[in-house]
Amino acid sequence: MEHIILLLKILMINLVLSGDNAVVIAMASKNLPARQRSQAIWWGAVGAVLLRCVLTFVAVILLGIPFIQAAGGLLLLWIAFKLLYENEDHVGVRAETTIWKAIQVILVADFVMSLDNVLAIAALADGDIAIIVIGIAISIPIVVWGSNVIAIWLHRFPVLVLLGSAILAFTAGEMLLRDPRLGVWLAGTGELIHAWLPGLLTTAVVVAGIYRQLRARHI
After folding, report:
1. Average of pLDDT values for 107-133?
2. Do residues 17 and 116 touch, judged by C-beta distance below 8 A?
3. What is the pLDDT of residue 91?
4. Which residue, 80, 117, 200, 216, is the most exposed by fewest CB within 10 angstroms?
């Protein structure tokens, strides 16, 4: 059951953080004939899975270095808040007319936009390679093939973005506690901070997200 919950968290994070990727994928392949569009998306999905696995393995190794995991936690916390307040305008992507160019655009976009996903997955899995591979293998194809649907869902149901941000904030708190140096220092500051830090960060993000949504309704 613990592994199932972990996989669901990875899937949720990928769905929320890949909104921009979904838009890029849809735009890059929209001018291709139906059959070539399916091929471009399929090969793009395979390449994205392999690329994300390699990047996540590298992140797992790097997170063992003192203060790297703490820095990653702070970056993940910033991403969680940014996700709630980010501008909805997306940078224009030129639609490609050949299958190989479309695949290149999909892979480059996934590489450029993968930092947040990679950090979150590496921290959640805590070195469990099997969970990393399974989580990425399940979530990336869903993101790629359901690109248009995901983009619509994220716009129509803001609670999905809020949930994703909450998971990121909790993961950020856990990363801070697991850092080889900072985690030891935080443990020495008292049991209260050490036990409640992930929950406090999650609460702060949820409150900020609810405030953002209420404020948007009154504008």
Report:
1. 76
2. yes
3. 45
4. 216
